[in-house]
Write a structure and sequence with these properties.
Elements (H helix, E strand, L loop, with lengths): L1 H8 L7 E4 L9 H9 L4 E6 L2 H11 L5 E5 L1 H6 L4 H12 L5 E5 L6 H9 L3 E2 L3 H5 L8 H19 L4
Parallel strand pairs: 1-2, 2-3, 3-4, 4-5
Helix pairs in contact: 2-3, 3-5
């Protein structure tokens, strides 16, 4: 990974090299992150899901190059855990790494954009499907309810279903 990271970093000054928080054998990449960052390689440490991982990555990045730390809030939510408290604490724990930015990765809904903003998260990755929902912001819930009923009616009519 180190050899590949250094090669990729040479592609240009705006390149951030993605480094997974662990390898497939469960070995943490903290020392690799520290070496790369201290040598000026911009990294995006990815696939974090615990505060212990955030803390260890923060320690590795404290005196290094600009970096990103991607916490997969959407995947955390997929397990039934509310990601907001964890992400709020991640913002606080990442603060000592002055050149690091927290990414709210893997969002599942438009609400996550507002949650990320409310807690001071630096970056959120957003798919086009989620961005399309921005048109609904401020939409009357009464009207949205009616639109939904009309959609159900039209679906049933188009299916030709009758009783």
């Amino acid at each position: 990974m180190e050899r590949q990271a250094r090669k990729i970093a040479g592609w240009g000054p705006n390149v951030y090299v993605k480094i997974p928080v662990t390898n497939t054998r469960r070995q943490p990449a903290y020392e690799l992150v520290r070496r790369l960052s201290n040598d000026g390689v911009k990294v995006n440490v990815t696939a974090l899901m615990t505060l212990d991982q955030v803390e260890a990555v923060t320690a590795a990045l404290c005196s290094g190059a600009p970096s990103c730390v991607s916490v997969f809030a959407g995947r955390i939510a997929d397990t039934g855990v509310d990601p907001v408290p964890l992400m709020t604490e991640a913002v606080a724990r990442l603060a000592p790494a002055k050149r690091a930015e927290l990414i709210w990765a893997s969002p599942r809904e438009l609400l996550n954009v507002f949650q990320a903003d409310a807690i001071g998260c630096h970056i959120i990755t957003v798919t086009n499907d989620i961005l399309k929902k921005l048109a609904l912001v401020g939409h009357s819930l009464e009207e949205y309810s009616l639109d939904t009923v009309k959609m159900f009616f039209n679906d049933a009519t188009q299916a030709g279903f009758t009783l």
